[in-house]
What we know:
InterPro entries: HTH-type_LysR_regulators (IPR050950), LysR_HTH_N (IPR000847), LysR_subst-bd (IPR005119), WH-like_DNA-bd_sf (IPR036388), WH_DNA-bd_sf (IPR036390). Helices cover 43% and strands 24% of the residues.
Amino acid sequence: MELRQLEYFVAVAEEQNFTRAAARVHVAQPGVSAQIRRLEREFGQELLDRGGRSVRLTAAGEAVLPYARAALAAVAGARLAVDELAGLLRGQLAIGTVTSHNVDLPGLLAEFHDAHPAVEITLAEATTDELVDGLRTGRFDAAIVSIGSVVPEGLDIQVITEQAIVVAVGHDHELAAHATISLDTLRGRPLISLPEGTGIRARLDEACAVNGFAPRIAFEAGDPEVLAQLAARGLGVAILPEAFAEARADRLRPISITRPGLRGRLAFAWRAKGPVSPAARVLIERARKMLAASR
């Protein structure tokens, strides 16, 4: 049994796809498939169900996965201990981010790269749910996420901004005459929202559920700018961060939501426990100082 076989197996299990897993580990797909087949022969059991559109774990695969992760984590921890003793700063950093924010992430990463050119940095956009899961499993070292008042389990955060979530409509919309509306006013109305898994959508779904209804999502897009454009054209009521909506007041009418009000937080997040590479530790420290100075 080889560590790379366990690494490839974990990648396929998490990605549920051989092509994405191969890209993640920077190996051609046939090589990943061949190594996992060897691992399965060694166990005498198939670990992956390849019959559907996505790859799923078999019962044996479910049993092996936590041990494979633990083995990889142990090796990573040993390497970190040696690197720290030697004072080295190298390896890889995986950073995640939600789509829209005002953090100078390119500036942060560029400064880090200039100071530590031996560290390979990757950046990926995803929903908050995907980012939180990636932080917990070690796929991401740090991420910018959108959350509510509760800190996701297993993570530490530094709040970047906290602001109200508002509705935004075109200036000729029937709601445009109102400065505030109750959440119940949205019942049955066509809404324009970010997709499930995003922080703002989670706050909307939670609040509507407490008030006894499910939001009617007519249009869904991952880019807040698209939501603003759809609302400005009169296609529905957009759910947006307050500052984002107010910055487009020439074409949108931001309206506060009351009873209850909705609030969200943008935060820089990292894993609370487990091995942290020297590179990740330095980046997290840099990011926290930058964010503290900008507030």
